[in-house]
Specification:
Blueprint lengths: L2 H26 L4 H5 L1 H7 L15 H8 L7 E5 L3 H7 L4 E6 L2 H8 L6 E5 L18 E6 L4 H8 L3 E10 L7 H9 L3 E7 L8 E7 L8
Parallel strand pairs: 1-2, 1-4, 2-3, 4-5
Antiparallel strand pairs: 5-7, 6-7
Length: about 220
């Protein structure tokens, strides 16, 4: 092996050790973002969990942090899309109605839901999914839009959102939702965008909260 080859080999070893040290620091250092948020565990398991392995919504960490200190126990929540978010909301609010379109996923989740959750399974073959919220007599404080047919879901949700209600919209950086955001703006809603990383994924995305002047989150 030539001297030049030896140098290159040593450089590669140093780079590998450096990456290893950095990776370990991200896992074990108490100030590590990846550790404090539970990102490593969520990436390893492919599930949306925090550092205690408890379920959390699959939204950006910045949005989750914002919501944590503002949620009241008397709130009523409707979700388009279900999963660990359903469990997280159920532990914090009075009532959750969650609508799912996938029967396999619905079967997995339904065995874990507590008594304050009404868990719906609605087909995408017709309008029953996007109109599921209209089956409810209650007006809701929070509507989470994180499932299918989101633009259609918003049109229905507007009819069941109370005067202080807010809309939480995940993946709000997607261009195909602009028409819904214009609709919300025309109804007096303002928008806060929370961009960054979230559970499981390695790329950043955006979650938005839409609210009016008087709202249940005291924004």
């Amino acid at each position: 092996m030539t001297f030049k080859s030896q140098v290159k080999s040593q450089i590669k070893k140093i780079e590998w050790v450096s990456r290893l040290v950095q990776s370990r620091a991200l896992r074990v250092h108490e100030a590590s973002f990846a550790r404090s948020t539970g990102w490593f565990e969520s990436a390893r398991t492919g599930t949306s969990v925090d550092s205690n392995d408890d379920p959390i919504p699959w939204i950006t960490y910045s949005a989750l942090h914002f919501l944590k200190g503002r949620i009241r126990t008397d709130l009523k929540v409707f979700e388009f899309g279900s999963g660990n978010s359903t469990l997280w909301w159920a532990a914090k609010v009075q009532k959750v109605v969650s609508c799912e379109h996938d029967p396999v996923w619905h079967e997995l989740v339904r065995h874990r839901i507590p008594q304050n959750v009404k868990y719906l399974l609605r087909s995408l073959d017709d309008e029953s999914y996007s109109r599921a919220i209209l089956e409810e007599d209650d007006a809701f404080d929070v509507v989470v839009i994180d499932g299918r047919r989101r633009n259609e879901c918003l049109i229905s949700a507007m009819q069941r959102l109370n005067e202080e209600g807010v809309v939480i919209w995940d993946n709000s950086d997607r261009a195909r939702y602009v028409e819904s955001f214009d609709l919300l703006a025309n109804h007096g809603f303002r928008r806060i965008e929370f961009r960054g990383m979230g559970p499981v994924g390695i790329a950043e995305w955006e979650t938005s909260v839409f609210y009016r002047s008087s709202n249940c989150l005291d924004i």
